[in-house]
Design brief:
PUA-like_sf; Translation machinery-associated protein 20; MCT-1/Tma20; Sulfate adenylyltransferase; 5-stranded mixed beta sheet; Uncharacterised_CHP00451; globular; RNA binding
Length: 190
């Protein structure tokens, strides 16, 4: 979605009623963020929205990007929020071979998740707590981590459920929403 460098459009203040709605939507989509919501979206702080190309709205607190949303799609976290609160999101892990493709903006393919270095929910007893035990449905917003790396490299939306991925082992797994090094990551808000 943000393969090229982007220039921010108009910046405007979000009305307090809309801000409450955004906060409620974030908590509904990411319930594990509840203990941190006051630090992320404080009630007394002014939330801003910046219009980006392709009908994308970027919600910021000062110069800190928080969430973005394409039209009426799911509200997705910016990687700065993911890096601060990694345990608050559904996570999957790609193998080393898929890293360069993901960081070049390609859609994530199933073999990158089902190979030896990849992790899906309920794959490994030792890492069950990290990647969860419940299968994820298509349309779920997920954070993609990379084998051997400490921080997440992508946020995207699943194109197929994780149970189906385990069965078919091929096809498109996740559509890239935002990844390290993309136009949204490099956007200067200062």
């Amino acid at each position: 979605m943000f393969k090229k460098d982007i220039t921010p459009g108009a910046k405007s203040k979000v009305k307090s009623s809309t801000q409450r709605g955004i906060r409620a939507k974030v908590l509904e989509e990411y319930p594990l963020l509840e203990p941190h919501i006051e630090a992320i979206l404080p009630k007394k702080e002014q939330l801003d929205v910046i219009k980006l190309p392709d009908r994308v709205a970027l919600y910021t607190l000062g110069t800190t990007p928080l969430f973005f949303q394409h039209m009426d799609d799911a509200i997705m976290p910016h990687l700065t929020v993911v890096h601060r609160y990694p345990d608050a999101f559904h996570r999957l892990r790609i193998d080393r071979g898929a890293i360069r493709f993901v960081l070049s903006g390609a859609s994530l393919m199933v073999p990158g998740l089902t190979s030896a270095g990849g992790r899906l929910p309920d794959d490994d007893e030792d890492e069950e707590e990290r990647y969860g035990e419940d299968e994820l449905e298509a349309g779920t917003v997920v954070v993609i981590e990379a084998e051997g790396k400490e921080t997440a490299c992508m946020v995207g939306v699943l194109k197929m459920g994780t149970a189906e991925m385990k069965k078919v082992k091929k096809g498109q797994a996740c559509e890239a929403g935002h990844y390290l090094g993309d136009g949204l990551w490099g956007l200067s808000l200062g």
